[in-house]
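Lecture notes, part 5. Sequence design as translation. It can be helpful to think of inverse folding as translation between two languages: the language of shapes and the language of residues. The source text, in structure tokens, appears below.
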């Protein structure tokens, strides 16, 4: 398979630094941490932005011009990076409620133990609180629909408090 060249991805990632940081560890809470995501997930998200299955005012134009090989290279580069702690200080009671909700909704069936992700399922452990909350709200409101319905159906059962509690819990994990 062509692509998946980490060094080529590093060079191409220069355009990603402003939002996602030089190693995929965004310091801006509304931009996701890409470091440590699976390369398959990253590739599919880039492809979805390129093919308008997922929309974002910043990402859609960035992905539009990428070739398949460039998307694979970028995915390989960011997947090879190590996620760093965000410094988020969770509310312990909210994080405990978030863990209980995660257990109740069987989140680890897809996201795995430790919320490390697998294949096309993202790593959500240690992700920015603000980003987690926004994505869950977007799935619930059907603003984000590139999930084959899985996250949309789960998110629709969540209250606003559940979403915020899950954000505290997931952001507290490493």
């Amino acid at each position: 398979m062509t692509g998946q060249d980490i060094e080529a991805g590093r060079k191409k990632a220069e355009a990603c630094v402003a939002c996602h940081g030089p190693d995929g560890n965004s310091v801006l809470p509304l931009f996701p941490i890409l470091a440590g995501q699976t390369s398959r997930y990253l590739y599919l998200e880039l492809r979805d932005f390129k093919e308008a299955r997922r929309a974002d005012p910043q990402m859609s134009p960035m992905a539009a011009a990428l070739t398949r090989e460039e998307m694979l290279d970028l995915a390989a580069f960011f997947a090879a990076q190590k996620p760093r702690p965000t410094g988020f200080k969770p509310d312990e009671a909210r994080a405990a409620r978030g863990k209980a909700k995660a257990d109740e909704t069987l989140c680890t069936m897809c996201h795995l133990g430790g919320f490390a992700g697998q294949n096309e399922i993202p790593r959500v452990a240690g992700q920015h609180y603000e980003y987690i909350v926004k994505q869950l709200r977007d799935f619930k409101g059907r603003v984000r629909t590139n999930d084959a319905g899985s996250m949309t159906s789960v998110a629709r059962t969540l209250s606003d408090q559940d979403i915020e509690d899950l954000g505290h819990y997931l952001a507290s994990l490493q």
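The translated text above is only one of many valid answers, since several sequences can fold into similar shapes. Residues 6-79 form a domain with the Cytochrome Bc1 Complex; Chain D, domain 2 fold (CATH 1.10.760.10).
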